[in-house]
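ok so for the tutorial part 2 we go from a plain amino acid sequence to predicted structure tokens. step 1 is just haveing the sequence, like this:
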Amino acid sequence: QTMTSITIIFPIPSSKLAQNGRSHWRQKAKLTKHTRLSACYLALSALKMMNAEPPRWEKASCKVAAYFPTMNFPDPLNLLERCKTLIDGIQDAGIIRDDSGLWPERPTIAKDKDNPRIEITITKEA
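step 2 — the prediction. this is what the tokens look like for a chain of 126 residues:
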């Protein structure tokens, strides 16, 4: 049985990662590097829990489900922008070969006061 989909759970990325995030470029670069590395480790951990090797898919779709602790949600495009670093980490883990072959679906946004998180599901496409 070959894996065709994987869901990875991440902490909510900092709003400073958005293009309109107000932070110094050096601080943003450091945050981006740390977030991308953490995302790679979480993706590798998800693969390990599935007992799977990195599939390096050429084409895949990407579904982002965001759960925030309050009803103060970002707009969908800003959310996807904040998740870009997570996608780069998923690429670094080898789930996708290159994020240019990854197509985002419309994100879903909801409230979960007790367990805020981002769930990204990558699904292989033919």
